[in-house]
Structures are given as C-alpha cells and as structure tokens.
Design brief:
alpha/beta, Gyrase A, domain 2, Isoleucyl-tRNA Synthetase, Domain 1, four-stranded antiparallel sheet, 52% helix, globular, binds arginine
Length: 581
C-alpha cells in the first residue's frame, strides 16, 4: 500500500515554495493548471504582479531539467499557466496502478464516526424516504471507511411507542394473525402484508371500540414496565418486520447487520436518567406537566415558543428523549467524535433542538462534530411528493421491481442473444444501480423526480452509462490477446489521454473532499467526468489499432486504470460493475 501524491498537490507545493505563498492552483482550460495566487501576494507587497510572476517562472526548473513541469508562463495580469510533463502524468498513474488503493492515502488522523441511517419503522411499510436514507448512508459509510475512519452504523428503527400497546393487545386477542403459512416463498412481502393487515385491523378496532382502546392503553403500561409476555409479543412484531426490512435491503443490495440495528427501544434503560439529568441541570423545565427544553429563537406561527418535549405530561417519553439518550450512548460509550444523521429534511427542527439541548447539558462538546445530513423529497413526474400520489403504487418494492424490469428491456435490446438468466442477473445490477445513482447524483438537500425512463437511459448522467463504460473497458482488455497494459512514460500523450490521465489522478483528492463534506454527489459527478473523458479518448485514440506496440500497451494501461477507478468509485457508491453488458 503506497499513497501517491497527486500531480496537482506536487505542483501546488513546488509553486508555493517558489512564491512563498499559496499559489491558489486551479485546473485550467488554457494549460493544465493556473495559479492565481501571485495577484494577491503582489498586492500585499505593493509589487508588480507580472514581475513577481516572472520571478517565479525564472525560479522554477521546467522541461527536460524537471520531471514534473513541462512549461510555465505568465499570462494576463499575472496568472501562471502551468503544463505538466507527459512523462510525469504517466509515471504518477503507473504508481497508482501499482497500488491496490490506487494510491489513495488513508486519513492521517482517523476518528470514530457514528452514522445513523436506514431507519424504517416496525410494522409499517417502508417508503422512498427510507430508501434515500439507506442509499446515502450506505455510500457515506463506505467512503468514510475507505478513507480509514472507524465507522459505527446505527439503524435507529422506530420500534417503540404507544401504537405497540394497540398492536400487542390485538395479537393477544387474535393470536394467529402473525403466524406463517407452510411453504411461504416471498417471505418479505408476506411478512409485510401480514403486518399491514394487523396494523389496519387493530387501528380500526382502536378507533371504533372504547373497551379495546382502554385495554390497549393498559397494554402500553405493561410494555413500558417490561412485562415479559407483552415484551415477547412486541418482539414478534419486531422480528416479523425485520424479515421484511432484510428482504428490501437484499433487493437494494445494501448489507445491514443485525448488531447495528439499535432501534428506539434500545435506549429505554436510559430514558429516566436522561430526563432526571436534564431537569436537575435546569436545561429542561416542567411546563404544564411536560418536561420541556425552550429555545429563544424557535417560535411557532403565533409567536409562542415551541419547546422540545422530552417527557409528556402523562409520563410517556417521546422521540426526543430517545435521541438525547442515543447521543449520550454514542459519545460516552461508543467514544464517537463525529455523529451523522442521514434523515429527511423535514426533521431538521427536531435535530436542531436535540443538538442544542445536548450541547447545553454538555453531552455534546466542541470535540464532537454533529451533523444532520438532511435530504430532499422524492417527487413523482407530476412534481408532487411520490408518497402522497394517489392511484399509483409507491410501494418501495414495486419501484425496485419496476426499475429492474426496465433495465432488463434495455439490456435485451442491446444484446438479443443473451439468455433470460443472464439478462435477469444483469438487470438487477443495472436497475438497482440506476435507482441508487439517480439518488446519489443529486445534491443531498435537493428534491428529485423519480423518473425510471431517465434513470435507466444509456446516455446522460446515469449509472448505466458508467456501467457500460466499465464493461467496454473490460471487453477491450479481453480482446487485447497477448498485448498487456503497460505504462510507457517515454511516449508523448495525445490531448484526450492527458485529459483522462489528469482526471484519474484526482480520484484521491475527490474522495477526500467527499469524506470531508459528506457529499456523495461529488463522487458521482467525478465518475461521470471520467466516463465522459474515456468516451473522448476512445474517439480520438485507437487502442488495439494504435501505431506501435508501445502505444497499444500504454493505452491499454490507461483504459485499465480508468476501469479500476470507475469500479472503486462505483463500489463506494454501492453500485455494481458487471464485467459484460
Ligand atoms: N424512524 C424514523 C422515520 O422513519 C427515522 C429515524 C431517524 N433517526 C433518528 N435518530 N431519529 O422517520
């Protein structure tokens, strides 16, 4: 494992040394890079910027005297245009190719990050919001781990609350409603439809029958008191739901581990203490019997303050008590220094209040970074939230199945000789990849339209386009026969080769940026640029039919490294790269 400094970092360093200030290096269309830092420095020193720039040019070796910079010149009011040598590009890429991690360094100071994502609710159908949280969270955990961070996953599923009194009571009175039938196949779907049936029936009874309502409320008390029979029945709902969750995650190709599912109920033992500590410290106060935290800047439409309710007047604990307890657990017990929450933007106020309350009492300190990563809503083609559209199925599983079916059509059209089995296997990778990519290529906060036609399109900014780019590289490498990828730094590079090479060299820098800002869409757009640069490279530079054997090898080398970069990047986004399409 050897980390490889990027060309941009090396040049930045070289020019900084000559200039004695930050050169503010940027990619440029005129040369490879442009340094804009001379202007500010000259201004500060009351010097002539073109003269300062000329001195830097003078001080830096170029061309054959230097392995790195081929040419440097002053332009405009005092910019520096810098061209990297072809040999340096090829040598750097060869160093990347020699490394399993493509030369991407591990973080120098890794910490522990808890990522709270993929948090559906027990006994309820998952919706597209849960899809977003799962897809984004999965990508972020993978990227952080690749960077060397210790990542702890937490699936804060909704598995507690008053509705479970109703559900358990119903099951006591209708004991066989969650029983499995002999020979069930579509386990996940059947689990969900059973749960749904029980949920609807018990809700109906609850609304219509006062006595059942009373029995349900008593049952909540038993549940909270830890009555073993009640808990055992509650557990059946959790287990049944997990069968369903796992079946959806399986389809989504997202690995969820049982030990990482720590739902709301996982913090039960801490709730009383959390409330006591908040009340004794004065951070929370009683207001009309409820335990509340107030904020000067958070007011409702009527101008009245909107408090965070930690405990209700009837003694019940809310969502906030659980989240505050989870913060205590994650900082004090799990020793996390970063807490991330991949949750719907509509919960922004909740998290703002929870974080602020935790800061006031000292459960969150300046040493801990805490971030709600809010994501926008998935819209239907009519621009309305997908969830609420009438008449159209928005069941998560149906959407996934439909994406896979559409992908199958695209794959079959491309190659009619494929067997149905092969089509099905590839369609799963293409269809699910399409859904994930459409989600991940949108910046987090934005809403996006769920448009399957666009998602599985072969052209444009889609995962299928990236998957085809990868498969095509693999096909060329298979066809190369005896010719093997090999770097030849002595060969001059064509413009399309340089452009592709410089982009490949930026993989590590891109990942570092994404890991810092938690913006997977930047990795998606980087990969799209790589695939586009590859398309131009194919157009302008014949690979197997190149003039000399060395050029063939060098182009195979470039193609191979591009494939590995695409594959690594897509893997981090949770997207498969079929060898053939
Ligand atoms: N289960 C919740 C929902 O479906 C999301 C939980 C988010 N995480 C948290 N720590 N509050 O909306």
């Amino acid at each position: 494992m050897a980390s490889v400094p990027s060309l941009s970092a090396s040049i930045q360093q070289r020019v900084a040394d000559a200039l004695g200030a930050d050169p503010l290096l940027r990619r440029s269309d005129r040369a490879d890079f442009q340094a804009n830092g001379v202007l500010g420095l000259a201004k500060r020193n009351k010097a002539n910027p073109r003269e300062v720039a000329a001195q830097v040019v003078e001080a830096l070796p170029t061309g054959d005297d230097d392995g790195l910079i081929a040419a440097i010149e002053v332009s405009g009011p005092g910019f520096l245009n810098i061209t990297v040598s072809d040999a340096a590009i090829t040598r750097t890429l060869a160093a990347r190719a020699a490394d399993d991690r493509l030369g991407v360094p591990l973080k120098a100071d890794p910490g522990t990050t808890v990522v709270d994502y993929a948090q559906p609710n027990v006994a309820k159908e998952m919706h597209v919001g849960h899809l977003r949280s799962s897809v984004i969270g999965d990508a972020i955990t993978k990227i952080l781990e690749f960077e060397g961070e210790k990542v702890i996953r937490r699936h804060h599923i909704g598995d507690w609350g008053t509705q479970f009194g109703m559900l358990v009571q119903y099951l006591i009175e209708h004991p066989h409603e969650l029983d499995h039938e002999a020979g069930e196949t579509a386990a996940g779907e059947e689990s969900m439809s059973r749960l749904d049936r029980v949920y609807k029936a018990s809700r109906k009874l609850f609304d219509a029958d006062e006595d059942f309502k009373t029995r349900s409320r008593k049952r909540v008390v038993d549940l909270q008191a830890g009555d073993p029979e009640t808990l055992a029945l509650w557990q059946r709902f959790v287990d049944e739901s997990k069968i369903y969750f796992y079946s959806v995650y399986d389809k989504l190709d997202i690995a969820i581990r049982d030990e990482d599912i720590v739902g709301e109920s996982g913090y039960n033992d801490m709730l009383i203490e959390t409330c006591t500590l908040l009340e004794e410290s004065g951070v929370a106060v009683r207001s009309n019997g409820a335990l509340c935290v107030f904020f000067d800047d958070i007011k409702g439409k009527d101008g009245e303050p909107v408090p965070l309710i930690v405990q209700k007047a009837d003694g019940g604990f809310g969502y906030a008590a659980t989240d505050l307890s989870a913060i205590r657990n994650r900082t004090a017990d799990l020793h996390a220094d970063t807490l991330l929450y991949v949750v719907d933007a509509r919960q922004a106020l909740h998290f703002k209040m929870v974080f602020e309350a935790a800061r006031r009492i000292g459960w969150l300190t300046d040493e801990v970074t805490v971030k709600h990563l809010p994501f926008g809503t998935v819209l239907g083609k009519d621009g309305k939230p997908l969830k609420t559209r009438e008449g159209v199925s928005t069941k998560l599983e149906d959407l996934l199945d439909e994406a896979v079916q559409r992908a199958a059509v695209v794959i079959r059209a491309k190659n009619e000789e494929l067997s149905e089995e092969v089509v099905a296997a590839r369609a799963a990778e293409v269809g699910i990849g399409a859904i994930k990519y459409a989600d991940l290529s949108t910046s987090l906060g934005r809403d996006y339209v769920f448009d399957l036609d666009r998602m599985v399109s072969l052209t444009g900014d889609t995962s299928v386009y990236l998957q085809y780019a990868y498969a095509r590289i693999r096909s060329i490498l298979r066809k190369a026969g005896d010719a093997k990828p090999a770097a030849h730094p002595e060969l001059p590079l064509a413009p399309a080769e340089r452009a592709l090479g410089l982009l490949l060299d930026e993989f590590g820098n891109t990942l570092a940026g994404v890991a810092e800002t938690y913006e997977p869409h930047k990795l998606a757009s980087y990969l799209y640029s790589v695939a586009s640069a590859l398309a131009t490279f194919y157009e302008q530079c014949p690979v197997l039919k190149a003039d000399t054997p060395e050029t063939v090898e060098n182009r195979l080398f470039l193609a191979d490294l591009t494939g590995r970069t695409l594959r690594q990047g897509m893997t981090l986004l949770g997207i498969r790269t079929p060898e053939q399409l």
